[in-house]
Backbone:
């Protein structure tokens, strides 16, 4: 156990305090006798180190680690001498904290994912960025299972630095989507589109940053349907008597939308233009992508049973595996 404790201290460059876990006798025998258990404190955060005494399979370990966390109230870190790449990927994808002495440290409850080559400072965040939102939605549409940082940058047509920040955010949110292997990080997900949507949905944002309601038609080129009009485009729902469009921030500046006369909220507009923070190519590009369209809806829209039914149909269509 000392090698694991030393590796944590050396890798994090922090003082760590570790003692034998004093309440092992209160655990079921197959846990207390099957693991060497130590209590570890890092920066006032206490966790449990658990090293199996005998060889065991991942299915059993996964269940037992979950039981120890439930029984002790502490995040439980699995300590292993070695592990196959597949095993490590599975543990990361399922958010199971682990240490492989001298090789890799994955402790998502601390917001860190480390390897022998050094430590990345993972920022504390309270809200996902639009770049990261575009990444995870693209991962859903394209059915990503494994992509390196470089491959993700090429797929999104952005810089590797942008994807690096996206990967940092996903790790900071404790989402089990990023696997660290020495100097490489990869996006890893094996459970299908619907499961990924369910996993990331609580962190996603309304992509619309501004909305303009006009009394007259505005001439706009190369635009897409947005909001409820996009929902109608992807479903059998009947649209309003006016259309909603989505444009980029640059397009909004070119059109000088801020200088045009707007219709009060209490009046019916002739058209609505929304400013969207990212663009994802989807099918024929006549409308913004369906998941972003759903995220852009107001609470009033969603409360409409007809809209709710349309959303269900859209999700079923674009999240199938």
Residues:
């Amino acid at each position: 156990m000392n090698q694991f404790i030393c590796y944590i201290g050396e890798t994090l460059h922090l003082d760590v305090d570790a003692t034998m876990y004093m309440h092992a006798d209160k655990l079921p025998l197959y846990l207390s006798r099957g693991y060497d258990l130590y209590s570890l404190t890092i920066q006032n955060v206490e966790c449990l180190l658990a090293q199996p005494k005998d060889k065991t399979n991942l299915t059993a370990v996964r269940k037992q680690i979950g039981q120890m966390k439930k029984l002790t109230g502490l995040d439980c870190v699995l300590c292993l001498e070695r592990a196959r790449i597949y095993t490590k990927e599975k543990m990361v994808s399922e958010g199971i904290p682990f240490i492989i002495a001298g090789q890799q440290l994955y402790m998502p409850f601390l917001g860190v994912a480390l390897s022998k080559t050094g430590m990345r400072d993972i920022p504390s965040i309270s809200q996902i960025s639009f770049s990261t939102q575009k990444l995870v939605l693209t991962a859903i549409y394209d059915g990503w299972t494994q992509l390196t940082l470089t491959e993700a940058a090429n797929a999104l047509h952005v810089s590797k630095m942008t994807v690096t920040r996206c990967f940092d955010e996903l790790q900071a949110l404790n989402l089990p989507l990023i696997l660290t292997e020495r100097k490489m990080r990869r996006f890893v997900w094996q459970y299908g589109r619907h499961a990924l949507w369910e996993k990331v949905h609580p962190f996603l944002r309304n992509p619309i940053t501004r909305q303009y309601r006009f009394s007259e038609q505005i001439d706009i080129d190369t635009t897409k349907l947005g909001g409820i009009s996009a929902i109608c485009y992807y479903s059998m729902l009947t649209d309003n008597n006016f259309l909603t469009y989505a444009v980029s921030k640059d397009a909004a500046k070119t059109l000088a939308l801020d200088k045009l006369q707007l219709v009060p909220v209490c009046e019916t507009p002739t058209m609505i233009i929304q400013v969207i923070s990212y663009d994802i190519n989807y099918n024929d590009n006549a409308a913004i992508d369906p998941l972003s369209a759903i995220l852009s809806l107001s609470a009033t829209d969603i409360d409409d049973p007809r809209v709710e039914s349309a959303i269900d149909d859209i999700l079923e269509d674009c999240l199938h595996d």
